[in-house]
């Protein structure tokens, strides 16, 4: 287990055995949640290569992260009830962008802890600033959402234990159009095995895209995977999450504004057939 060695605004140093490692703090030194962040201050190139091995912090395992720092008031409340020890993140939004879906989900599921994972550091910083500002403006609310800078294609099992998640979101993922770049796509047979690992039995994997070919790609890969089965439409119409998939995110809103088509694929993590 890592122990905090010192705290400065924007970063924190953890001790792992004898080594010291600088890790990002919940909010950055630039704003510290004093006002709603503005996107123009957090702009970054739209695309990055998820197969690059650039250096950035990733935990050895979920125990290394001080989750209290992310969800302070939520934990403090449960401390009073004596059940903070069992708290775990249950929803993850992979490639959360500017965090629109997390904010909507926080309102619908105030008792669930949720984490956005975003590979672009400035964008992940924006989301943490957004959470901090929302908490300030709405006392007692939005303490259940946060965001980390992470490459989910490489580090997902380092953030979550086996079977921890109830919902996993891939909303308007990067399409990586060229055939040579298809291996950069976030839904592949290999990665689906990781998603099955972090999802609880019965957990739901939500995907939506405005790129028809990518929608088919995700549908084909998930349909062919032994750990997933399609959620029937009748069930989807009763799921309060589904309407949010279309308009909850910044990309979804863009598609709506342009009256574009969307391709939804929702799958359930089934029981392990070998057990
Ligand atoms: C097209 S945007 C969609 C953002 C958001 N889901 C929405 O619907 O508005 C895709 C996002 O995924 C992020 N991303 C791409 N690959 C990723 C990876 N391997 N791990 C985490 N985030 C990733 C990108 O930086 C980008 O913000």
From TrEMBL:
PROSITE patterns registered for this protein in UniProt: SAM_MT_TRMB
Enzyme category, top tier: transferase
A cellular-component GO term for this protein: nucleus
Key words of the record: Methyltransferase, Nucleus, RNA-binding, S-adenosyl-L-methionine, Transferase, tRNA processing, tRNA-binding
Gene Ontology MF terms in the entry: tRNA (guanine(46)-N7)-methyltransferase activity; tRNA binding
Main localization (coarse): nucleus
InterPro entries: SAM-dependent_MTases_sf, Trm8_euk, tRNA_(Gua-N-7)_MeTrfase_Trmb
Active site annotation, chain numbering: 174
Residues given in the record as S-adenosyl-L-methionine binding sites: 95, 118-119, 151-152, 171, 249-251
EC number: 2.1.1.33
Pathway membership, UniProt: tRNA modification; N(7)-methylguanine-tRNA biosynthesis
Origin: domain of life: Eukaryota
Cellular localisation: Nucleus
Reaction(s) catalysed by this chain's protein: guanosine(46) in tRNA + S-adenosyl-L-methionine = N(7)-methylguanosine(46) in tRNA + S-adenosyl-L-homocysteine
Stated family: Belongs to the class I-like SAM-binding methyltransferase superfamily. TrmB family.
Protein name: tRNA (guanine-N(7)-)-methyltransferase
């Amino acid at each position: 287990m890592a122990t905090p060695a010192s705290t400065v605004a924007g970063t924190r140093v953890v001790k792992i055995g004898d080594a010291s490692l600088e890790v990002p703090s919940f909010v950055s030194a630039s704003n510290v949640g004093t006002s709603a962040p503005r996107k123009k201050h957090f702009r970054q190139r739209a695309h990055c290569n998820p197969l690059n091995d650039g250096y950035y912090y990733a935990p050895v395992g979920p125990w290394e992260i001080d989750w209290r720092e992310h969800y302070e008031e939520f934990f403090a409340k449960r401390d009073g009830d004596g059940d903070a020890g069992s708290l775990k993140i249950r929803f993850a939004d992979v490639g959360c962008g500017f965090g629109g879906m997390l904010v909507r989900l926080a309102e619908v599921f105030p008792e669930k802890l949720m984490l956005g994972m975003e590979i672009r550091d400035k964008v992940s910083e924006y989301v943490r600033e957004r959470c901090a500002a929302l908490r300030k403006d709405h006392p007692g609310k939005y303490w259940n959402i946060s965001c980390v800078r992470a490459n989910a294609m490489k580090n997902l099992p380092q953030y979550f234990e086996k079977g921890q998640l109830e919902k996993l979101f891939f909303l308007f993922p990067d399409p990586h159009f060229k055939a040579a770049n298809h291996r950069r796509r976030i839904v592949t047979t290999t990665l689906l095995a990781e998603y099955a690992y972090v999802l609880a039995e019965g957990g739901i994997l939500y995907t939506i895209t405005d790129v028809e070919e990518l929608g088919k790609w995700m549908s084909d890969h998930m349909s062919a995977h032994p750990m997933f089965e399609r959620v029937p439409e009748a069930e989807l119409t009763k799921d309060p999450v589904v309407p949010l998939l279309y308009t909850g995110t910044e990309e979804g809103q863009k598609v709506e504004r342009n009256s574009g088509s969307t391709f939804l694929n929702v799958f359930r993590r089934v029981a392990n057939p070998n057990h």
